[in-house]
Amino acid sequence: MNATRAAREPEYTPTRTDRLLAAAGGLVAAYVSLAVADLVASRVRPEAAPVPAVGGAVVDRTPAALKDWAIRTFGESDKAVLQLGILVLLGLLAAAIGVLALRHRALGAAAVGAFGLLGALAAVTRPDSDSALDAVPSLVGAVVGVVLLYVLTGRLLTPRPGTARADRRGFLIVAASAGLAATGAAALGRAVGSPVETNASASRAALRLPRPASPAPPVPAGAQLRVPGISPFLTPNRDFYRVDTALVVPKVDADRWRLRLHGSGVREERTFTLRELTARRVVERDITLACVSNEVGGPYVGNARWLGVHLADLLREAGVRPPSEGGTADQLVARSVDGMTIGTPVEEVMDGRDALLAFGMNGEPLPFTHGFPVRMIVPGLYGYVSACKWIESIELTTFDAYDAYWVPRGWAAEAPVKTQSRIDTPRPLGRPAAGTVMIAGVAWAQHRGIARVEVRVDDGPWRDARLAAEDSRDTWRQWAYPWEAAPGRYTLTVRATDGTGATQPEQRTDTMPDGAQGWHSVVVTVE
């Protein structure tokens, strides 16, 4: 009877529509696989999800010049662009695997499994991974993806009885059901939240910042110029720039956080809790931070009021001496919970400047995006050699013995902030009305201060701008120049002189290896 039935049923041959459905099946299997993996990662560790894990591995292996280009081109959206690129690539591969599975069902399913193994390997080999459990999200997601693709492909390979057509209706039902279930599970996971993130958020909400024993002096009345369009003297937390390699912002439970201090010259290794740090002598300081990836006139600089403790005090209590006093270590390597390492000269940390372990920013606990519960702040140095966020370890060593994260990638081991100035208003290609036009902006040279700012219109003479009151030499300084403008097209240029008497050089340089320099200029049309 079976032979008679087989003889009556026509042989099944996949059509173009079936191949398109197979590609869609690959996409559905990939989507469900990622959704399930993300759901599992929310219970294990959000950073262990496949896209952040693979994306982090990509970031670590990306040439420094390409990273710098991404920051210049996409700004703080560079991480979103990277993750979108990964998802697009995965989508194309998933569609191809779906078509492959139509010809070789087992081989297509194996390809999905291989991607799951890749995600698991990336997760457990990340610098911040400390458990084999980080492989679980990718593996569970892969198993679900393999089963789903196998089932979907089976619907297309099994013709409906008495026809030569695939069971497309059954395919669509399974695909839609799986997609809706995965979407619902993902939404539920986000609504419930990760236990890690929930505990971290609760610990931040419960943190009461101590009153500083050494408060920051009041901001001078003349530090904020009343010029529309100029950057505010203190940058609100929501507007403060963020440049780091973390695709998933670490959420650290402050109650479980510990800071380890060890290494060369440390008399006895020490471990600090946040409670122990906040119980120490707390200081409050206004300090401007700048990113080494900031181009001339760029946005990656901000000024905030930081609350924390002097790092030098902890080091001296542990027996550490700077090289100028015979100390054996010339580099302090700060390590973040996400595995980032940042190398800072010990001499600068201990020379009397306000190098801080900060836990407060503009009157509130550090936001998660800016390093909660604790980060480093060292005025006068670019962030990549001083401003470690989510810090968990400080090791005393030497520059000869260890290269921090950015050094093998082409950046300088030491990088003092260069004197910079920026025109905030009028904006590039602006069209101000004829008459008095206020040219204004900010200038910075942390730990040296700004002594003078000059403005030039086209190739005319340099004119002194009016400087706002100086808060401290560790903060930026606003400036303004009233320009009597006639209709026409003009190039406006600014340059600054720091507290040592050194003036910005005219020639522009790239950000690599130790920061950009050069005059900032904008072109405007006066109407």
Structural notes for this entry:
By secondary structure, the chain is of the alpha+beta class. 34% of the residues lie in helices and 21% in strands. It has 12 helices and 18 strands. It has a 5-stranded mixed beta sheet. β1 and β2 form a beta hairpin. α2 packs antiparallel against α7 and α3 packs across α6. The radius of gyration is 29 Å and the shape is globular. The N terminus is likely disordered.
Summarize the structure.
By secondary structure, the chain is α+β, with helices and mostly antiparallel strands. Helix content is 34%, strand content 21%.
| Cα-to-Cα separation, first versus last residue | 91 Å
Q: Rounded to an integer, what's the Rg over CA atoms?
A: 29 Å
Strand content: 15-25%
Class computed from helices, strands and strand pairing: alpha+beta
Helix content: 25-40%
**Average pLDDT across residues?**
92
Strand tally is 18
Largest sheet, order of strands side by side?
2-1-10-5-6
What's the overall geometry?
globular
In DSSP terms (H or I, runs of 4 or more residues), the helix count works out at 12
> Low-confidence parts, pLDDT < 50 over ≥5 residues?
1-10
